[in-house]
Amino acid sequence: MRSDAVKKGVDRAPQRSLLRATGMTDADMEKPLIGIANSWNDVVPGHIHLNELAEEVRRGIIEAGGVPLTFGVPGVCDGVAMGHAGMRYSLVSRDVISDCVEIMVQAHCMDGWVGVTNCDKITPGMLMAAGRLDLPTIILTGGPMEPGRRDESCLDLQSVFEALGANKAGKMSEEEVLQIERCACPGEGACSGLFTANTMACLTEALGLSLTGCGSMLATDYRKKELARATGRRIVELVREGLSARKVVRRGSFTNSIILDMAIGGSSNTALHIPAIAADFGVDVDLRTFDEISRRIPHLTSIKPSGPYYMKDFDAAGGVPGMLNRLVNELSDEMTVNGKGIREIALSAPVLNEEVIRPLSRPFHNEGGIAVLYGNLAPQGSVVKQAAVSPEMMRYVGTAKVFDSEQLAYEAISARKVVAGDVVVIRYEGPKGGPGMPEMLSPTSLIAGMGLSNSVALITDGRFSGATRGPCIGHVSPEAFDKGPIAAIRDGDRISIDIPGRKLELLVPAAEIEDRLSLVEVVDRRPTGVLAKYRRLVGEASKGAICR
Rounded to the nearest 5 degrees, what angle is found at the Cα of 500, between the Cα atoms of 361 and 472? Predict the structure, then answer.
């Protein structure tokens, strides 16, 4: 066993002495050491129950003849971090988490590990570590939150953000906003729509690194603890079988995950996370792969923010296995940690509600959830969640209103200085410029809540929450900090958005754009600490904002 490096032979007496201090016995020294990377904290609603799941994983490991070794990793709540300087740390945490897992597993020579996770950057960070370490690995995601209720209406975090917009527009009182606030998030779990956390949980299952049904199973579902214990038992079996992460996850696994992503209409953040995860598995995935798959895979469910359903509805309709059943003929038959191929799992899975998980012949949209736009404004690409864009805004020409920070844009929108026909441009919020590429849920929700989603677009070199809806185009590359064309936009310029044609164009002559860029004085926020380190290491959004 790999762990023999710390527990076999007389030369390892000092190491064994320390392990005995943790409670290990002579019998334990003969067993595999299994790490449990637990992102529990009492800050993030999606994580407050993870200790309970980790305990079930521990029990499963012990039952199967392994020794569980639990350690912690950080976890940021994007919703709490949203709209202020704290959001600059969210994407940064993805790489810190993968480093933390690598450090703990490698330093202590663990034989395999389980990632107990749930939210936006934590799951991708653990998946990156899985590829890097290439050990037996299973990821256990904590599950979605129940939707909130007010009267007969279901609510979620998106409801609260958009209520602020309605309040700014004079359409809702502060008391009504408070009522929605108190009802929207009823307890543990990742936010109840198909935002980034739940998208990544579903894609982890499609990658083959979670047990079947994990991705959509609610945090409050009694089956979650059963699945956690089964995860503990199975990881010990994987160690004995020698089934490491790279034997499970191959190029076809990433194709499968993107196919599922397009069919469910997942978060645009997957265009950052999947390339970054793939890179740690030694696989190259670029934005053009997303767009090629999007053009041929239809959108088959309509979960918030794209439509009326919640993760609860999706799970009851068959969840990830049911959706894979719809897509079975498109899937590469890759291995999973279940010991079965993904196609076998898909073929045996029922679809229990054909309105929530529609057949290929009757999709919500003929194309997948994400589109990648190129043009003189985004030579290296930009990303939009087209499943959440109304038909009338799929092609749009508007007038630029330019802001050099999210906060300036938020203040202008709040003051009703953004009107129908505008294109809000928020720049210097990319991976380097932010730094940290913050999410723009606050300004996009204001626009939606004010009733402007069908008359105002937003473009940024930052990114969006999975809860964002409307014609919001992010990840514009190159970013303004690198003097990409977005740095050349001026108030009053005309911008053309053509989502079906995959075009994003600044309607200014090429020579003038070049002249403007030669005069640009880059906005530099002069970060310190971890943000300064991140800026030095991070790459382009179009390639996953990978730190190297």
Answer: 110
Tell me: the pLDDT tens digits for 431-483?
Answer: 999 999 999 888 998 998 899 989 999 999 999 988 788 899 999 999 999 99
Same domain? For 106 and 166 the reply is no
Domain boundary among 186, 205, 240: 186
| Residue 345 phi, psi dihedral angles, 5° rounding | -60, -45
Question: Residues 345-363: pLDDT tens digits?
Answer: 999 999 999 999 999 999 9
Q: Which residues, at least 6 apart from 228, have a Cβ–Cβ distance to it below 8 Å?
A: 53, 54, 56, 57, 60, 116, 140
Rounded distance between C-alpha atoms, residue 200 and residue 203, angstroms: 5
Q: What is the DSSP letter of 46?
A: T
Number of domains in the chain: 3
Residue 352 located in a structural domain: no
Interval 65-80 mean pLDDT = 96
C-alpha closest to that of 75 among 59, 90, 60: 90
From residue 461, alpha-carbon distances to 268, 437, 481, 496, 505 in Å are 13, 8, 9, 17, 15
| Band of residue 153 on the pLDDT scale cut at 50, 70, 90 | confident
Report the pLDDT value the prediction gives residue 469, as an integer from 0 to 100. Answer: 87
Contact at 8 Å (CB) between 548 and 539? yes
Which of 465, 477, 496, 542 is an active site residue? Answer: 465
Whether residues 389 and 289 fall in one domain: no
Separation CA 70–CA 113 (nearest Å): 9
Helix (H, G, I), strand (E, B) or coil at 423: strand
How many Cβ atoms from other residues are within 10 Å of residue 59's Cβ?
Answer: 16
Domain identity same for 138 and 152: no
CATH number of domain containing 425: 3.50.30.80
Q: Which residues of 516-543 are buried (b: 16+ CB within 10 A; e: fewer)?
A: beeeeeeeeeebeebbeebbeebebbbb
465 is an active site residue: yes
pLDDT tens for each residue of 210-255 = 999 999 999 999 999 999 999 999 999 999 999 999 999 999 999 9
Is residue 533 one of the residues assigned to a domain?
yes
The 8-class DSSP code of residue 482 comes to G
* Both tokens assigned to 428: 């210097």
DSSP string, 360-380: TTS-SBSS-S-EEEEETTEEE
pLDDT of residue 169: 85
* 513 touches 376 (CB < 8 A): yes
Q: Which residues contact 29 (CB under 8 A, 6 or more apart)?
A: 7, 8, 16, 19
Q: Which domain holds residue 178?
A: 148-186
Question: What CATH number corresponds to the domain at position 240?
Answer: 3.40.50.2300
Which segments of 86-145 are extended strands (E)? 112-117, 137-141
What pLDDT is stored for residue 306 in this prediction? 87
